[in-house]
Amino acid sequence: MPPDDLNNEDLEELEIDQPTELESEVTKDEVASKPADTGDPVSIVEAKIPQDIRERYEVFSYRNAAVILSETRKTEFDDLLKALREFKITKKMIQTAGGNESDIPKLLSTTLRPLGWHETIVQGDLVVKMSWHEQTGTRKGKPVFEKRSKDFRRERFLDGHKIDYVKDRVAFDLEWNSKDQTFDRDLYALSAFFQCGVIDVGVLVTRSESLNPVFRQLGQALKRDGKTPDFKSPGKPRLTYEKFGASTTWMGKLLYRMNAGRNGGCPVLLVGITPKCIEDWAPEEAEVVEASSSEPALQPDSETVEGEI
Fold first, then answer.
1. Which domain range does residue 69 map to?
2. Residues 270, 263: Cα–Cα separation, whole Å
3. Strands 231-233 and 236-237: what pairing?
4. Could you read off the pLDDT of 45-68 as tens digits, one per residue?
């Protein structure tokens, strides 16, 4: 079952136990570096997603999501391209403790809310009709049947599936640094919206793996005020990279779930935030990241994961 019981309060500043050896093995296995055969060819992404977007983000398409967006949902597609082009984060934003009110999701809200993208919940009852022919007697030695039927109603069969941004028939969400099970909830919600005929396509944005070497170079993390250095305990600084554990939301975890079909048939475009989205990240720093990209990037889950965004 998808983890619908996870809510914002549960995820925010969630304390995580150190993983067992088995849990570490499972976490390592539940990662994909690229789309499986279920993903769309790279040529489709290159043909339908503008080059400037592909230069700043890594982009993957499933079930023709790129085609649907670019050809049948032009207005919404243009809105999202505008939001992605205006999306610029800073090193300080990354260092600062987040949660639902961090500066990173606000960047998207500033662009999308005025354009008519609303937080949306889908709810619905399930009505099942059973029909049969029942023998009620005989006539001239032959059985006589009458049609019978009965309705069953399961109230709130769909209850509370939420997506942060929906406009017309397109859904969009960002997961910066939540527990990776949040992806299950997101994909389940997209599937529910899609099966109900509410949306045609979804878009999910998360961290690219290419950000991990950046996190290592940012030094000590900051508290929510963006000024005070953060400590795990007196005299023991909390480093920025420690916030982004192996079991948090990043592209490898999302690709694994998409390859397993957890989108339930809903076309989904995946967008990965890369270091090129960091506006105060100097070119020479980017070269260092590129050179160190072969190093192990993700750490076992550390003590704290920021709240869901």
1. 10-122+162-305
2. 12
3. antiparallel
4. 999 999 999 999 999 999 999 999
